[in-house]
Structures
1.
Amino acid sequence: MAKSLPQRKSEMMPGTLELLILKTLERHRDPLHGYGIARHIRRVSDDVLQVEEGSLYPALQRLAVKRWVVAEWGLSDNNRRACLYRLTPAGRKQLATEVADLERLFEAILRVVRPA
């Protein structure tokens, strides 16, 4: 019986978490609480990207300071009081810029690592 190799912990490039948060909020019509954002990122990435609270909430605060997200108190899915986040128009614009920059970076990396 073959042993399965332990899963390596994937580390994100600096700034990637903010991009993932913005993209998650763009995909959802309703505001999300922090746990919902982390759960979405984990689910969509097939458990490769796992966002810890110690990284998530400071990132959300940075995005709020930049006015790319707005935080407001409301009720979570299970009717508990929670801080809910939504994307602002400025955040939507920033997301488009960051996605374009990331795509250009990945294309450049692939040109280097793939054989000609």
2.
Amino acid sequence: MGYQFIHLETYSRKADSEGHSVDWILAEARRDPEASLHVESPQAPELIYGIELEELASVHECLADEAKTTLKNGKTRKIRRDQKSLLTVVASYPVPIQELPEKSAGSDSLKRWEQRSIAWLQSLHGNDLVSVIRHTDERYPHIHAYILPRSDPELRAQRLHPGYEAKRTIMDSDAADSSKKELNRRGDKAYRDAMRDWQNSYHQAVGVPCGLTRLGPKRRRLSREAWQAEKVAAKALKTAEVRAEKYVQAVKSKGSAYADQVKAEAAEIRRTAETWAVQAKAAQARATRLERRAQGILERAKLEAARVLSGIAPYRKFGALVRSIWDGLNTVGIQEKARSEFAQQVKHLSKQASEERASRQRAEERATELANIVQGSGLVQAATSREVSRLKRRLEAEIGSKTKMLTPQIAVRAPSGGRRGS
């Protein structure tokens, strides 16, 4: 591989001393003939993020016309034409086009470098990053990114430049005890430190994963052997980063599959639990109906027994009266006369007493039968209650054991060797 190259610059609508302006830099990016004389065989740029360059030029012009700055006296006016209103970043991939795999700019290594570079720019500028293009008509493939400070009503692009912003902070600070020369020295140092941090940030986010060194050999006066050794180390580090990323993706994939499996099992448990709950509810309803039915039978049995007993009450009183008369007759010694006089009546009463006993026996048998029915209903109710309790215990045990599978500990351990995720 090689070392990283990334540079940023700000432009205004008015051309600077070198003739560079927003219109010129966009014309150079579009490969307009008058702005691309330095390219041997100009080719149209490839858009890899955001809006086309023509739309970018139109949006920039509209925002610049509407932008206003506030003066010290509180009044507002349109921004000056020489105010920096567009920030550009150029980054180059240190492998010649002809040396890339497949001899094209669409190689996997180049795409990964582009994706990481765009992600890094988004982390710094968010929605202010409006367009990124790729050029492949020069020796090294490179990208141009365009940052439009839409979030700033004054459209101050230099506020997005880390070096200028660091120096401005120093120069605007309270420096009553410092001379202008000392203040400027401190500002220059802050500028260099900020740009060094900016380069280091890009190296950590893009350079290291892509196998790029932070600086080139000439800048540090390295020997060829030392430079080759550093490139080998950078390549090894890239390989380790790629392997680590693949491992992370594999773990995420396994974790996702395991999570889907757990969700499916949880859904099945939930459906089973709902089915059991419906069955338990139906059993409870049946038990309630049987209990009410048994209660009704018991009430009817009580009413029937009361009716029977009330029907034979008069016969009980009449039988006692006959018995007392009979005993009285024996006492006074006129039994024979009574027998002859009341023989028919005693026979009739005896018959009635026999019928009364038979009726009473039938009533007692009916009461016994009703009591047996009530007892059977109680047994059905008890059996139903036991069935409901059994279903409830089974439901709680099943849900309790399955729910343990949903804990974060199991979800974390399972992909690396768990029973379901490995």
